[in-house]
């Protein structure tokens, strides 16, 4: 049975899912599935289209934001995941090959809101080694106030 690891009450991560895993996720109350696994990644046995169909059968929303491992620190990838999460309904189950890529994308997308210390604590509690993206987390946390100021300015003009 695939393990779902909770990061926050609204976000959990998982290794690659099967049809049975999606059924179990629905029974556990997840409302949205977010796949970060590219369909052309080696070892994909359950495509994003099959996952989308299965999620739909169980009344769940499905989003596919494929991100290769070497792309996890790319701003476009981080922003695309953050956009899906900000508009998601109910608890979200994110997955990729191992779950780590999804965890890193979540952390990089939310560190500006949660702060560095809380983000690192969440990752640590979940048993995730954040050192792989720690420099990027520090950088994004430091940029958060400037980004908030720019957004406020843009909204005012």
TrEMBL record:
<feature type="domain" description="Beta-lactamase hydrolase-like protein phosphatase-like">
    <location>
        <begin position="4"/>
        <end position="111"/>
    </location>
</feature>
<dbReference type="InterPro" id="IPR029021">
    <property type="entry name" value="Prot-tyrosine_phosphatase-like"/>
</dbReference>
<dbReference type="InterPro" id="IPR005939">
    <property type="entry name" value="BLH_phosphatase-like"/>
</dbReference>
<dbReference type="GO" id="GO:0016787">
    <property type="term" value="F:hydrolase activity"/>
</dbReference>
<dbReference type="Pfam" id="PF04273">
    <property type="entry name" value="BLH_phosphatase"/>
</dbReference>
<protein>
    <submittedName>
        <fullName>TIGR01244 family protein</fullName>
    </submittedName>
</protein>
């Amino acid at each position: 049975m695939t393990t779902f690891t909770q990061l926050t009450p609204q976000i959990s991560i998982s290794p690659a899912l099967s049809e049975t895993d999606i059924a179990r996720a629905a029974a556990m109350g997840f409302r949205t599935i977010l796949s970060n696994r590219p369909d052309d990644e080696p070892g994909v046995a359950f495509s994003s289209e099959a996952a989308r169909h299965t999620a739909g059968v169980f009344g769940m929303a499905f989003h596919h934001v494929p991100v290769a491992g070497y792309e996890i620190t790319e701003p476009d990838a981080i922003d695309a995941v953050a956009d899906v999460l900000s508009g998601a309904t109910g608890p979200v189950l994110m997955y990729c090959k191992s779950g780590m890529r999804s965890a890193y994308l979540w952390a990089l997308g939310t560190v500006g809101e949660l702060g560095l210390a809380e983000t690192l604590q969440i990752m640590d509690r979940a048993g995730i080694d954040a050192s792989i993206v720690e420099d990027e987390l520090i950088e994004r946390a430091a940029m958060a106030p400037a980004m908030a100021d720019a957004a406020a300015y843009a909204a005012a003009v």
